[in-house]
Give the backbone structure.
Amino acid sequence: MLGMLKARFYRDSALHTIVRAYKAQQQVRRWHAQGRPAKMPHLLKEYVVQAYGRRYGLHTLVETGTFRGDMIVACGRTFGQIYSIELDPQLHSAARVRFRGYSTVALLQGDSADVLPGVLAQLAAPALFWLDAHYSGGVTARSASDTSIVRELDLILAQRAHAHVVLIDDAHEFVGANDYPRLDDLRAHLRSARPDLMLDVRHNIIRIVPAP
């Protein structure tokens, strides 16, 4: 218990913020030195999510794919409410232990496309969605398909009352295989379903935001 309290105190401290910033700088340098490959350091993904939350004045983060909870830790100060969905029961249980006592973090277990409707029903304002719930081997779980991204997006885009911001990890997977749509087909679908939104791809992250 003492070890958990110390770890939590460190994660919430200014020292932790400084250390993470230093590590991010080191990772950015290595990433640039390697020619900025498609696989982006996770710390940089965290900064992208934080930056988009601030840019669009969003106070709620909805994450699909909790994994070990690092995105939750990184974004705890940026968002007043975080929902995180994890398919794997063991990863979900570990996250419940890690974030026990965090009143602003709601951890949900199940297929993200099945759980999302309940989350969407609770949203009274636009939110930022970080969609990263896909099977990638190792300890990650697989449902009936490698990814539920199409179902996830359709649910989010159907929420016309709010112009949600959507960030999707691993844009390189969108080639029409393993249950992923082709990126061009995704663009066409977005233009048809939500012409008020625009899609951009940078650093292997698909970014769907309100059109200017």
User: Anything to note?
Assistant: The first strand starts at residue 60 and ends at 64. The CA atoms of residues 34 and 211 lie 33 Å apart. The radius of gyration is 17 Å. The chain has two domains: 1-37, 39-210.
